[in-house]
Structure formats: C-alpha cells, structure tokens
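Look over both lines before class:
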Amino acid sequence: QLQLVESGGGLVQPGGSLTLSCVASGVTFEHYAIGWFRRAPGKERRPVARIASKGSSVFYGEPGKGRTIISRDNAKNTVYLQINGLKAEDTAVYYCAGARTGVSDFVPEWRVFGSWGQGTQVDVSS
C-alpha cells in the first residue's frame, strides 16, 4: 500500500523559495505517478502539479503556475516541489498523492490521485 510523507514546509518571506519533498514507501515507486495539491485556509484543495511515474511528463495546475517545478528521483522514492517567488496566497497545507500507472509512463487526471500524505504547512509572511 502506498504511503506518502511530505516535508520541507515552514515560514518563508515573500519572494523566497522553498522545496517540498514527498517520500513514498510500501510500493514500487516507479509504478506511481505523483501529484502535489494544496489547501489554503478556508478554501478547497486544489491541484498544483503532477508528474508521470518515470518523470517523462509533468502538468501544472493554476495555483503557482509558472513559479513551481515538480521533479522526482526514483532512486530515492521522492518527488519534489520547488516553489519560487512565494506569495502570501501560497500559504497552504501542501499534500502529495499517488496514482498507480504500473509500467506505463503517463500522468492520470487529477481526480485519480489518492493515498494522501499528512501534508506539510507552508506559511508565506514577512
């Protein structure tokens, strides 16, 4: 069973950068696409970025588009989310989730992702 643990959140000043990590266990990691989502205070969870199981394809959601980079290191069972030019609106709990794709290297639609991690809090404030 896929288990995910996020880390790397914290308090960051506006304009700063942050890299979040999502470490997976319990499965063959390279058989899973991974997505990042965020839930801002008082708002619904929104998709941020997703990456294919071998990293060949990535897609970005509207939150933070143009300022976020998703990547993965399958040797470390880890997916990263780099966020640059942080703004107050980026304040949220960031979650990662997985979608099993087997040996196929594609990125499922956002709604397919599950097996959520516990999240990591990002606060952008001066």
Summary: DSSP finds no helices and ten strands in the chain. Residues 56 and 105 are 7 Å apart (CA to CA). The beta strands are 3-7, 10-12, 18-25, 32-39, 45-51, 58-60, 68-73, 78-83, 92-100, 120-124.
